[in-house]
Specification:
The complex is a heterodimer. Chain A contains eleven helices and nine strands. By secondary structure, chain A is an alpha/beta fold. Chain A has two domains: 143 residues, Aspartate/ornithine carbamoyltransferase (Rossmann fold), CATH 3.40.50; 152 residues, Rossmann fold. In chain A, the strands form two sheets. In chain A, strands 7-6-5-8-9 form a five-stranded parallel β-sheet, with helices on one face. In chain A, 48% of the residues are buried. Chain B has a domain of 133 residues: Rossmann fold (3-Layer(aba) Sandwich), CATH 3.40.50.2020. In chain B, α1 packs across α2. Chain B is of the alpha/beta class. The two termini of chain B are 23 Å apart. Chain B has four helices and eight strands. Classes of the chains: A alpha/beta, B alpha/beta. At the A-B interface, α1 and α11 of A face α3 of B.
Chain lengths: 313, 217
């Protein structure tokens, strides 16, 4: 493993499988009376969140605490960032406090990379979502969830990712990771919500959801990210929902074994119908549970051993 | 010491993969390849495990409430064999499991993070049971200390005992084994290698000359 986790592309196939296998073992912890390991005792993990988040921050916090690390939560609201403190000064403060790892979410793509390679801090940097760029731990927990439901491996499985790919760091990280793991990824979205250059991604793409569903082993619905949309990408919410929403009829087009995923937060009735989100083939709640195991695995693998020899790449 | 010729390298062949030492080298003249001598054969291992099985039953006056937990990798195979042996002796089924101690080790920061092994506690748990920890080699005692910590998080056994196939000495902690297959006086420059059919395809215990800073265990 490298020192930082900034992009799903940082992970080789072996790295990714190591994270998933480690998470498999750590998931057992949930069934024990004492859900805690002493491994990261005395180490400090800072959650540095410049953007709102519920599940990712709580998930990282739970993961770090289960490994006995000290956790400092830092959200931009109510901090000196709202007084105009720069990323650099914030980072220097964290360094002065002795952070061994910084989990960062930022509205700007590339902020974690800047943090990792600026020389401001010495600890590991974990990208918890940067702009419309990447969200590697989400991709890992998605792959982990798929593996559990699709016979232990995603190799050769067909994964369909539907919706606002343009603004989705989840989609980007998932495409990269799933391709590394040997899955066939298909993106389905209105042409306006596919990024320029998507033809260079290791996946296929199309505009017709009905055609894609019958050959999917898993379908991942993306949230329509209105807060990032400054232009009209589709005529109306209703039309979007009619063409790209997963309703009961479309749900029926899926093979028997296929699972339904959503990274959350969901817009029920928009990209996914409530009855589909609550069906027994929806693994949306389980994705949250798995997130803790996967983030524990990542924290352990990045912080648990000897510090790797610095290779700035 | 009889040397099987199967794994012997041709005399002229230089060692191509120093990471994996050649098996048994009898009367080697070159200093380079690590010299291994076999100290326990397959039948010795069977006898040692049979005796340990009897000792465990004797000490605990039966096999009730016994849980054997092997420390991966080879301890798990040994625990299974011991459990089968005791089951055959006593007629009551003895459960075996696995206890990975990686997350409890005190030397984690000395090496790159390592992958975890499987922990499997038999149904019924360990509360109020007599837990026998099983490992292949007892050396510094640090693995056993980690195992005791790991047990602590899993429950509260009535008693914990330790069974090892080989005790090679050089303890760094006040820990001793209750059941020992064979005491092997070794020097720090030697490595004890336990091979088991389940993992390695053959049963044997060998002493190898470890390379500098090598894989002594």
């Amino acid at each position: 493993m490298k020192r930082h986790l900034l992009s799903a592309a940082d992970l080789s196939r072996d790295d990714a499988l190591l994270v998933l296998d480690t998470a498999d073992e750590l998931a057992q912890l949930a069934n024990r009376p004492i859900k805690k390991l002493p491994t990261l005792r005395g180490r400090t993990v800072v959650n540095l969140f410049f953007e709102d988040s519920t599940r990712t921050r709580i998930s990282f916090e739970a993961a770090a605490k289960r490994l006995s690390a000290d956790v400092i939560n830092f959200s931009a609201k109510g901090s000196s960032v709202s007084k105009g403190e720069s990323l650099k000064d914030t980072a220097l403060t964290l360094e002065a406090m002795g952070a061994d790892a910084v989990v960062v979410r930022h509205g700007s793509s590339g902020a974690p990379h800047r943090l990792a390679y600026s020389g401001w801090i010495r600890g590991s940097v974990l990208n918890a979502g940067d702009g419309t760029h990447e969200h590697p731990t989400q991709a890992l927990l998605d792959a982990f969830t798929m593996r559990r439901h699709l016979g232990g491996s995603v190799d050769g499985r067909r994964i369909t990712i539907v919706g606002d790919v343009l603004h989705s760091r989840v989609a980007r990280s998932n495409v990269l990771l799933l391709a590394t793991l040997g899955a066939e990824v298909a993106l389905v979205a209105p042409p306006t919500l596919l990024p320029v250059g998507v033809h260079g991604w290791p996946c296929s793409y199309s505009y017709d959801l009905d055609a894609a569903l019958p050959k999917s082993d898993a379908v991942m619905m993306l949230r329509v990210q209105r807060e990032r949309m400054q232009a009209a990408y589709f005529p109306s919410a209703r039309e979007y929902s009619r063409r790209y929403g997963l309703d009961a009829r479309r749900f029926g087009l899926l093979p028997e074994h296929a699972i339904v995923m959503h990274p959350g937060p969901m817009n029920r009735g928009m990209e996914i119908a409530a009855e589909v989100a609550d069906s027994d083939r929806s693994v949306i709640v389980e994705q949250v549970t798995n997130g803790v195991s996967v983030r524990m695995a990542v924290l352990y693998l990045l912080l648990g051993g000897r510090e790797p020899v610095e290779v700035n790449a | 010491m009889p040397a099987s010729s199967q794994e012997r390298l041709p005399a002229a062949t230089p060692p191509t993969a120093p990471a994996r030492p050649p098996g048994i080298v009898g009367g080697s003249e070159s200093a380079d390849p690590p010299v291994a001598r076999e100290v326990l054969e397959a039948t010795d291992i069977v006898r040692a495990l049979t005796r340990i099985g009897h000792e465990i039953v004797e000490r605990n006056k039966g096999a009730d409430d016994l849980v054997l937990l092997g420390i991966p990798t080879r301890g798990v195979a040994l625990a299974r064999r011991l459990a089968d042996g005791i089951t055959a002796i006593e007629g009551t089924r003895v459960r075996a499991g696995a206890l990975d101690v990686t997350m409890y080790r005190d030397d984690l920061r000395l090496r790159p993070a390592r992958s975890l092994q499987h922990t499997e506690v038999p149904a019924g748990g360990i509360d109020d049971k007599i837990v026998v920890l099983v490992d292949d080699v007892l050396f510094s005692g640090r693995t056993v200390r980690a195992a005791l910590d790991a047990l602590n998080d899993l429950g509260r056994p009535r008693a914990v005992q330790l069974a090892v196939l080989v005790d090679r000495g050089h303890r760094e902690l006040p820990i001793r084994a209750d059941f020992v297959g064979r005491n092997l006086p070794t020097s720090m420059s030697e490595a004890v290698r336990v091979l088991l059919t389940e993992v390695d395809g053959t049963d044997a215990v060998r002493i190898e000359q470890a390379r500098k800073g090598g894989l002594a265990r």
